[in-house]
Amino acid sequence: MGEESLNTVPFDRTAEQAILAMKKGAQLLKCGRRGKPRFCPFRLSTDEKYLIWYSGQEEKQLRLSLVMKIVTGQRTRQLQPDKENHSFSLIYTNGVRSCSLDLICKDKAQADSWFIGLRAVISKCHHF
């Protein structure tokens, strides 16, 4: 797979199902800049504009229109080779800098679903 362009992505039933699953949410392993990776509940906002997660009691959001690309496999930070086929990174702009949100799913099927859903939603965000 590798890097994916965020140009037009055909919207299909698979993407629709993936987006519905993302709105329901899932526990994903978030690999941050500091400390150990930790499980956080992630979900897609109902308006499909934000990825929302909770770190402790604090709600965090990533505006999906800021995401420039999705990179499959964990290549940006703490490498976990056994998890590479069910991980991805969202590369986004934060002011003038480029940042990444590195996530690991429970299995390849979940990673594929989140990847398809995010790609479809991000593509829509970039066309409005």
UniProtKB/TrEMBL annotation:
Q: Where is the PH domain?
A: 15-120
What InterPro entries does the record tag this protein with? Answer: PH-like_dom_sf (IPR011993), PH_domain (IPR001849)
Q: Where are the transmembrane segments?
A: none
The organism sits in which domain of life? Eukaryota
| Pfam assignment, any one | PH_12
This chain belongs to the protein called F12P19.9 PROTEIN
